[in-house]
Model the fold of this input.
Amino acid sequence: MNRDAADEIVQKAGILAVLYYPEIHADDPDYRLANDVSWVLEEAGEFAEGDREMLVDIVSRVIIDPTGNREALTDFVYGLVEDGD
Done:
């Protein structure tokens, strides 16, 4: 992954974290966390299967609890950036 893709993942996850609140399911019965995660990762490129699963998990956790999980996201995402990017 290049640096721009990593930045985009972190930025999109941050946007959704600001918009998320625990009662969202009551206000919007059609809301699906999986749809938000798909949006975050839609243009991020290809990943090894284990990396993609980890990203889905971490992005989900960041959206729901950004304070407790943002460091894990940045560490993981920027750890995937190829040298020289």
